[in-house]
Amino acid sequence: MTSRPAQRSSRESAAVSADHARRLRALYRHLAKHFGPLGWWPAESAFEVIIGAYLTQNTAWTSVERSIANLRAYSALTLEGVRKMPVETLLLLIRPSGYMIRKAAALKAFVAWLDAHYAGSLDALASVPMEQARLELLALPGVGPETADAILLYALHQPAMVVDEYLRRIVTRHGLLHAKPRHEKIQSLAVAAFHDDAPNSLVRHFNEFHAVVVEVGKRWCRPVPRCADCPLAFDLAHIGGKPVGNAPPATKPKPIS
Ligand code: SF4
Fold first, then answer.
1. Which terminus of the chain, N or C, has less C-beta within 10 A?
2. Domain 9-39+162-239 and domain 46-155 have a common topology
């Protein structure tokens, strides 16, 4: 049975408003209905998810797809493929994703760590408590909270809440958290939104939650928000009809003729 995500000590002080958590759950419910199942992560294996989680850092997904296609052509989308491949070749294949020297080294480090501590088995990694696996992932080069949680959720099917820039924008613009919230605070709010859901439904919900947040972020909640057409615009009524701190651009006044 899937366990409820533990509240880490760093998050204990990150108390969030129950009302705001309920609002975020309502936003998710609305988006899940709007988009339907999105079937994330777009990958054919758990290890391909992990490669994608590393490569997508600071990069558009379209660039990641080109790198993944290169790796596929070289049969390198497996642990064995990355293990055997010289790092010089690996960095050339992942070049479209940018930061290839750092990302190639990080991928090699992940495989070496998995080999040393889990006999090269993702199933063995998935069998340890989520918080332990998360701490170990965070100790690896090139792994921050977003990458660690994406690996836990989408590759290892653990109830880890993925927090990204898109979610930060949505929760701050809707006044659910104040400006510049810490990662832990956003994660606490998002986990609290699913407090009343059955533990064995959390992996499915967290999977869909991150997927719909990314869709909203890519299409509407951009650096300059496009609220007029956004499916979440209904919630702005809670905060006076426009997003907090980052209003849509004003219409340019017409020159007087
Ligand atoms: S674009 Fe506007 S309505 Fe949509 S999520 Fe962002 S702030 Fe909310």
1. C
2. no
The number of residues in the chain equals 257
Atom of ligand 1 nearest to the CA of 232: 3
Q: Find the 145 Cα to ligand 1 centroid distance in Å.
A: 24
pTM beyond 0.85, yes or no: yes
Each residue's pLDDT tens digit, 135-161: 999 999 999 999 999 999 999 999 999
Q: Extract the tokens encoding 35.
A: 């988009």
Domain made up of 9-39+162-239: CATH architecture: Orthogonal Bundle (1.10)
Task: List Cβ neighbours of 59 (8 Å cut-off, separation of 6 or more).
Answer: 97, 98, 99
CATH 1.10.10.10 describes domain 46-155 = no
